[in-house]
Amino acid sequence: MEQGFNSKTVPGSATVLSDLHATTEKPQQTAKRPTWSGRLEFILASVGYAVGLGNVWRFPYLCYKSGGGAFMIPYLTMVLVCGIPLLTMEFAIGQYTGIGPVHALAKVCPLLKGVGLATVVMSVLFSTYYNVLMSWALFYFFNSFDSTLSWTSCNNTWNMVENCSSGIPGNVSHLQSASQQFFENKLLDKTSRIQEAGGIRLELLGYLFIAWLIVYLCIFKGIRSTGKVVYFTAIFPYFILFALLINNVQLPGARDGILYFVTPVWSKLFEVTVWVNAAAQVFNSIGIAFGSQISMASYNKFNNDIVRDSLIVAITNSLTSILAGFVIFSAIGYMAHIHNLPMDKITTDGPGLVFVVYPEVLATMPFHQVWAPLFFFMLLCLGLDSQFGTVEVGVTFIKDAFGAKILRFLKREELLALTICIICFLLGIPYITQGGIYIFQLMDHYTAVVSLVFLALFEVVSVCWIFGVRNLSNMVKKMRGSTPNFYFRFCWLILSPLLVLVILISSIIQYTPVRYGSYMYPKWAEFVGWLISMASMIWLPLGAVHELYINKGSFLQRLRAATRTTVDMASAAPDAEKLNMDNLTSESLLAAGVKI
What we know:
4 strands; 1% strand; two-stranded parallel sheet; mainly alpha; two-stranded antiparallel ribbon
């Protein structure tokens, strides 16, 4: 996996770092960067990226596990002190420089230029397995048109009849629901351990191809096509969520489910884990340190109001999570009612909530032939919006770094997006083997959990402490005409960096080895997982060493030069073409530098 990724998507470390440095030495003529057709397109794209499958399965479970309504206090606190300020920070970096995260962060703090490269690696790794979820959604979507839903019966070839239950088995531990067996035996057809790869699931291979084809058709014209698609993919899920909520609240037991979701358990507020979980949920949901928000903001017009947009995106994301919680728990209350089971015997975390529990709910609803296809189509829309953002990080990086060279070879920008989609599709094939679920879980744990917070800490340190709050505030002032208020400056300087540090330390202290259900991974698989994490994290020390090496003088002189920003802070209205690293000489970069 790691070898295939390194050989196909990212050149060797020395080549990338040298090319990144060379773009500041060789002025070239580049085409003017395109911009979003309107402010609404950018907002919808950012909302679509932030609002994903995690809002539907992760937030409701966290809320239930962490004190119900009491969880709203730490969650909304973290939105205010971490989510909104850091999203505004990323919007500011992307919009002011008019370039992607790799080159933008390299200009902000050359010493930590590896942070930008690391976000690209992590986003590409993430996109290879995230689209597998879209193939699952397509699988369920096309299986939901039958008059009798396939996951409701124990009389199918994939069922293990001796331990199959047509409903939720509750306290009977040796039984599995028909829905669970449909997921594991029909969809995954999984083996018993990671060592047994098994064959490729040809049906899922076809759905994975369709998922990547949809992604390509939505992004192949860059923001010109993505900006139009998000009008549907970002808005449609809300119609389904509200329709499901209206339907669910009328079901027997729905009231008990909602009360179970929102009833405060105040004692939970005194547990550090609850606050850490709230911060991590905000952090992961908004997408800090993935590079996607910087990439999308880089296509904004220079005077766009990023503070307003960050407020809209963060608040919409939070309200969507709460809405999804009402939808899910009203349905779980209904299931608990009809099966006469306690709520905690139905609630589960992760993909199981939307691919095992909720399909079981849909099967018992009136007019399930309507609700089932709509629900899985909604999941597809939620996932695709997030996928657009992660793929765009890779496309933006290659265009910014090697645009002229690549276009001489591929001739058209559309072929660049096609090449990236094909590579990611091929790298996604191991996840759809019979042992693919174990690889999927391994990648998700070490990419989206272990690496993300580590990279986020260094991104915040490079921007808020080395580049400095003063420079960041001046950026915002030049773009929107007014300096950020005390709330933003205080969060950037103290609260946000310390909060990210606390999350990282807590993640290390509370680290648990990866597992899938009751299956414990062998030691060699955990070692592979850490190699996956290192595939992105290794760029930080490599970038720092490279930057110190190319500078001249004593170590202190090299370090001082490496922490000197090359962002043009003198111009009142820099544009993307002026700030593109391909158009700057080393002399102009040094002249524009601000000593920190």
